[in-house]
Design brief:
There is one protein chain. The protein contains 9 helices and 13 strands. The protein is of the alpha/beta class. The protein has one domain: Metallo-beta-lactamase, Chain A (4-Layer Sandwich), CATH 3.60.15. A hairpin with an 8-residue loop joins strand 10 and strand 11. The longest helix is centred in the C-terminal third of the chain and has 18 residues. The protein is globular, with a radius of gyration of 17 Å.
Length: about 270
Amino acid sequence: MKIHHLSCGTCCPVCQRALQGRGSWLAAAQMPCHCLLIEDKNGLVLVDTGFGTPDVAKPTQLGRGFLATMRPTLTREQTAVAQVQALGYHVSDVRHIVPTHLDLDHAGGLPDFAHAKVHVSQAEKDAALQRASLPEKSRYRPHQFAHRPDWQTYQPSSQSWFGFEGVQQVQGIETEVLIVPLLGHSRGHSAIAVNRGDKWLLHVGDLYFDRRTLTQSAPKMMQIAEQMVAFDNHKRLTNVRRVAQLVAQHSDHIEVFCAHDPVELSHHQSLIL
């Protein structure tokens, strides 16, 4: 089994120094959309999809507020579908998609793999399709679900994983892939655990944006950004502490990373070169 670490789009908000603690005050921060491509015996599996070709073709569908603040780099070359093809695969080889959640910078590639089964918590699917609050009208974009995805939804179970409750194993995949409820950033936000064989990979999505959040040393402006976009920041912070404890106790068995930290992405990409 091989796992590729992809960047499927990059958000470039202003003031790198304030957000990431390096660079200049005028430079743009670099926040990749870190996705996984798993070569499973039953086909390819994507964990998150970043931005997709519909977003590249018509960026205004993402919302003018998002475009103005996050300033995403949108090119076809960065889309998951282009990177899958560059690796020599066909679009149809992607059989399963497991999003951490369905925010616009995580679900943008869904229409590019309209045939794939999308595995997500029932709570997150409901939030994305109902868009019940004003923030949810911004974070979930209808054009990314207009193709009517082939949903496979999950409710919390009685299973646990390293003390995290409500875990569900993704169906139809030979690789052990788990949906681990990690609420707070969105209504149904999850981490995705992948058994690599030698250790677990835990993609925690948008639990945090900067790895230093786990040690309470992230730049203050980044901490504010994490809080501002959280559906329930109290739950998010509770889960940040739980994941920090997980790292402290089980770092030999688990590698944790988020969706938007460029240092984490660079580290994992360097390991497979």
